[in-house]
Design goal:
Largest sheet: 2 strands, antiparallel
Membrane topology: Multi-pass membrane protein
Number of helices: 17
Low-confidence stretches: 1-11, 510-528
Organism: Streptomyces crystallinus
InterPro entries: MFS (IPR011701), MFS_dom (IPR020846), MFS_trans_sf (IPR036259)
Protein name: MFS transporter
Strand order of the largest sheet: 1-2
Shape: globular
Number of strands: 4
Strand content: under 5%
Radius of gyration: 23 Å
Subcellular location: Cell membrane
Length: 528
């Protein structure tokens, strides 16, 4: 009985597997923009600093980056459906913990909930792609379903701001974490009934030395970037974290080269297509998630928009990306992935550069066309990038390739908010005294405002009362904040250019791995 098409008494499970995989990645990515557009509200409610807000995002992304490779191995060894269901359970638990953060008045509780949800997302990403790869062994046909997978990912990014906006217009921000709970539980139940389990061929084992060294390297690097940006990169603990990250990375490489069952087989990098897409995934997601972090702060801090209004603007990016993804996925057999990815990244670069001219009064229409171009650009990147990474290696390594590509993507996603937060904090802090002076404030007033920012973060500005000078103070702060926003957008554009160069220089058309005519090496685990 072929598990790619049949399970449970002859019932066709292929369509159900693909649908469940798409729902799973939707649940995994829902917290990204749901939380991002709520950051200004969360900051005011929990009296959080900009560095604290970075950890709200990175508490979710870090476990994804650190554990995604191990989750891929666990799925290969014990069954991908089991890992899929475990991931959904962690997403539900994390959402339930985060739901209590407002009542507890603790940003640390929110970090904890985000971390549990991140563990769940780490399990879901390789499991969902592994299930699709098993259900659709033909690389050409599989590309179509990978496009559906990426569209579901973008759908989560599109829906998240609207969910947050509707909730925050009528209730506390804590309720933005409610939706993942029933979504996760219902999907778990459906997967148990309709999705056939599968495992990888051979005798893969859990690679704990590789897992530990990878997790330490990633966590230490992100910690150093966030804390260095908030304080100073010359701080002793920041330097120790950077050194620890470097040593752990070297240890990870040595461990994987010597391991009989590596978590990430470094032979995958012999494929130029896999190496190129891994680098492009990391670099482009650094720019993308960093941009979303900065955009949410711009809409909340500079334009003083409500979450729903901010959500409408986010849709101008996410909806075109979601719509364009399947279209580009369909044509990637006629146009090379190299051309699609490079062109998409250059289009995104142009959009980000155009956004460097935004100010406090930029209209919805004036911003929308720039965000639409950005969405189309990323729509041309996502599906070809993911499909190329999977199709560039033999079928039996597709699960590891999916996990590896996602791991690089999440490392970039973790570094994005950390880097942008550091850049934003440094630039605004440096520019604020001059901007306040330009606004006409005297030395005493300037010292009072900068002191409030140093002790309480950017949100503390709105609590400073200078009487008749308050409007001028807020104008000066807005100008300083825009200086930081423009710097971050310029860096994001430079990051996209770098990703485009990597794509143009390194990406080559992969050799398609034809499905084997003999009995499948990968044995199904049929549902009882």
């Amino acid at each position: 009985m072929n598990a790619t098409t049949t399970a449970r008494g002859g019932r066709d499970s292929r369509a159900a597997t693909i649908v469940m995989a798409c729902v799973g990645v939707f649940v995994a990515y829902l917290p990204v923009t749901t939380v991002s557009v709520s950051l200004p509200t969360i900051q005011r409610s929990l009296d959080a600093s900009t560095a604290d807000l970075s950890w709200v995002t990175d508490a979710f992304v870090l476990p994804m980056a650190a554990l995604i490779l191990t989750a891929g191995v666990v799925g290969d060894v014990y069954g991908r459906r089991k890992v899929f269901q475990a991931g959904l359970a962690f997403c539900a638990i994390g959402a339930a913990i985060a739901l209590s953060a407002d009542a507890a008045g603790s940003v640390e509780v929110l970090w904890t909930g985000q971390a549990f949800a991140g563990v769940g997302a780490a399990a879901l990403l390789p499991a969902t792609l592994g299930l699709i790869s098993h259900a659709v062994p033909d690389p050409r046909e599989r590309s179509k379903y990978v496009s559906m997978w990426t569209a579901s990912l973008m759908g989560a990014l599109a829906v998240g701001p609207m969910i947050s906006g509707l909730i925050l217009e009528n209730a506390s921000w804590r309720w933005i974490f409610l939706a993942p709970i029933p979504a996760s539980l219902l999907t778990m139940a459906a997967a148990a009934r309709y999705v056939a389990d599968s495992r990888a061929a051979g005798s893969r084992k859990l690679d704990w030395p590789g897992q530990i060294t990878a997790a330490v390297a990633i966590t230490a690097l992100v910690y150093a970037v966030i804390e260095g940006g908030g304080e100073s990169f010359s701080e002793g603990r920041v330097l120790v974290a950077l050194a620890l990250s470097a040593v752990s990375l070297v240890a990870f490489v040595v461990t994987e080269l010597r391991s009989e069952s590596p978590m990430l087989d470094l032979k995958l990098f012999r494929s130029p297509a896999f190496s190129a897409t891994a680098l492009v995934a990391m670099i482009s997601f650094l720019g993308l998630i960093g941009f979303i972090f900065v955009l949410s702060l711009y809409l909340g801090q500079v334009q003083q928009l409500g979450t729903l209004d901010a959500g409408y603007r986010m849709l101008m990016f996410t909806l075109p990306a979601m719509a364009a993804g399947p279209v580009f996925g369909q044509i990637m057999h006629k146009v090379s992935a190299r051309v699609l990815i490079t062109s998409g990244l250059l289009l995104a670069t142009g959009s980000l550069l155009s956004l460097t001219s935004i100010d406090a009064h930029t209209s919805f229409a004036d911003m929308s066309w720039r965000l639409i171009i950005l969405g189309i650009g990323f729509g041309a990147v996502f599906a070809p990038m993911t499909a190329t990474a999977i199709n560039s290696v033999p079928h039996q390594l597709a699960g590891m390739a999916a996990a590896g590509s996602n791991a690089f993507r999440q490392v970039g996603a973790a570094l994005g908010p950390a880097l942008m937060s550091a850049l934003l904090t440094t630039k605004v802090t440096d520019a604020l005294p001059g901007r306040l002076s330009d606004a006409g404030l005297g030395a005493e007033a300037r010292d009072r405002v900068t002191g409030a920012v140093d002790s309480g973060g950017f949100g503390a500005v709105h609590g400073v009362d200078l009487g008749a000078d308050t409007p001028r103070m807020l104008h000066g702060f807005t100008e300083a904040f825009l200086d930081g926003i423009h710097l971050c957008l310029t860096i994001s554009a430079a990051v996209m250019v770098l990703a485009a160069v990597v794509s143009a220089v390194l990406l080559r058309k992969p050799r398609a791995a034809a499905p084997t005519p003999t009995p499948r090496v990968e044995e199904p685990v049929l549902s009882r």
